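Supplementary Methods, section 5.1.

A reviewer requested that the exact input to the structure prediction be made available. We therefore reproduce it here, unchanged from the version used in the analyses.
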Amino acid sequence: MIELNQVSAIQQQTQVFNQVSLKIGYNERVAILGPNGAGKSTLLKLINREIYPVERAGSYLKLFGNETVNLWALRSKIGFVSQDMQEDYTPYTSALDVVTSGFFGSMGTHAHLQPSDDQVALARTLMKQLCMDIDEQRMFQRLSTGQKRRLLLARARVHHPQALILDEPTSGLDMGASLGLLSLMRNFCGEGRAMIITTHHIDEIIPEIDRVILINQGQLIDDGPKNEILTSEKLSDLYQTSLQVSQNDGWYRCWHG
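The structure derived from this sequence is encoded token-by-token as follows.
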């Protein structure tokens, strides 16, 4: 589904990645773990075509087997939710219009982009499925952080994407909202679809995720099955502090010690 070969990336005149190679297959569920500033969000922006890799002989980034990707087709295959999207979203958009805007890949409503009756009906169904059957005309800015995240998740699902990409999915959420979102993520994986999340909290790595990639300073440090990567030794090395890791029924937690 995603293949990077010797990819380098620059943001704000700083080289974030240098010749990184990575493959993520169809239907894989992957967590990308690393400290703040490690390059996790940059990697997702490369996949989502928000930024482009440095052109270099032998270097390429393929999505669904192609180096050249139609952005409209990409949006229908990958649903994307991030904290940046939530902060940048047009604040005076109604709850319903937030979801229907996903049909057009826009960050708000526009006079020339009017959803069909079927699209509005699907948007309402998705809102109800995500426990967002609220006043559909309530403005985005007046919603709680958890409600905003659920709306953006509904927006990401309007095309029934093959994969969801979530950048630090529970960032800014209280405990109840976090647990609710993790449950929704598990439901999506239960549909047999792919998921990629970035995080620096291992307690939001749901049991359905079976592969973990460790990243730091723009380099892939380790990559493999979850039980082999989420160890006290490897996470202590990644975060440069003494950590202890435990596992219970597919959920992991860690603490200083």
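The radius of gyration is 18 Å. These observations are discussed further in the main text.
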